[in-house]
Design a protein that fits this description.
The protein is mainly β and 249 residues long. The protein contains 2 helices and 31 strands.
Length: 249
């Protein structure tokens, strides 16, 4: 534990791997088979690597360099996160998650496990992601979005969640039903219920959601096209992620 700062009330399993310059707050618990990367910060009352019979026997919890886990968050064993993970408070992450770099999970997010996320994914507060969901790169899910995975609840059917394409945006309080694909660079309007696939570069909205047209029709106050959003929005992304956007968009 090179240069680690561990609160006296924290409980760290001797088999956990703690990288250099890690800090762990009061009353946090780090179980065995946890790997914390360099510079990780874990605030108070967190649980990392909570045991579960649903994880693989060799299922370590791996949190990459620079992770910042805010207070009262719980991560089960058996998931892997790339560098730069940031959470809000009281986040719950179940087993079987495979997540790329620079992921942000807002307060009270609930990830039910066995999902795959790409790089630079952004989840606002109180987002629920059902099992076996897939998110691409640069996806945005706004507050109270729900990704469901059971087509005939409760059932043992093909419990496969939605697939959200690269750069797609799902606005607040929308629900995406199981097996639905939301295409790349698409937009789901607020309070929508999405039952069918969303074509790339389109906007849908309503209950049930219907196609409202091509995203190019949506304008900023300046009159410029609002989408693709990487043309005008880069806040919070590292330069290595955005350097190529000027040529792509």
């Amino acid at each position: 534990m090179n240069n680690a700062q561990i609160a006296s009330s924290a409980v760290i399993h001797p088999d956990a791997t703690i990288g250099p310059d890690v800090s762990i707050g009061e009353f946090s618990i780090v179980h065995n088979r946890v790997q914390l990367g360099a510079g990780a910060r874990v605030e108070s009352h967190c649980v990392l690597g909570r045991p579960t019979d649903l994880a693989r026997e060799d299922g370590a919890l791996i949190l990459g360099d620079g992770a910042y886990i805010r207070s009262h968050s719980v991560f089960y064993q058996g998931s892997q996160f790339g560098a730069g993970l940031v959470t809000g408070h009281r986040v719950t992450v179940r087993e079987g998650m495979t997540v790329g770099i620079d992921c942000q999970l807002g307060t009270l997010c609930d990830l039910q496990g066995d999902c795959q996320f790409g790089d630079h994914v952004r989840l606002h507060s109180s987002v629920h992601v059902g099992k076996h969901s897939t998110l691409g790169d640069f996806v945005w899910l706004y507050p109270y979005v729900v990704l469901t995975n059971d087509p005939h609840p409760p059932s043992e059917d093909d419990n496969r969640g939605p697939t959200i394409g690269d750069f797609a945006v799902v606005a607040t309080m929308s629900t995406i039903l199981p097996r639905v694909t939301v295409g790349v660079h698409s937009l789901v309007g607020a309070h929508s219920l999405v039952r069918h696939d969303v074509a790339p570069h389109t906007v849908v909205g309503g209950v049930p959601a219907r196609e409202l047209g091509d995203l190019s029709r949506i304008k900023l106050d300046s009159g410029e096209p609002a989408y693709p959003w990487p043309r005008h929005f880069r806040r919070g992304y590292p330069p290595e992620a955005t350097n190529a956007w000027s040529e792509r968009f």
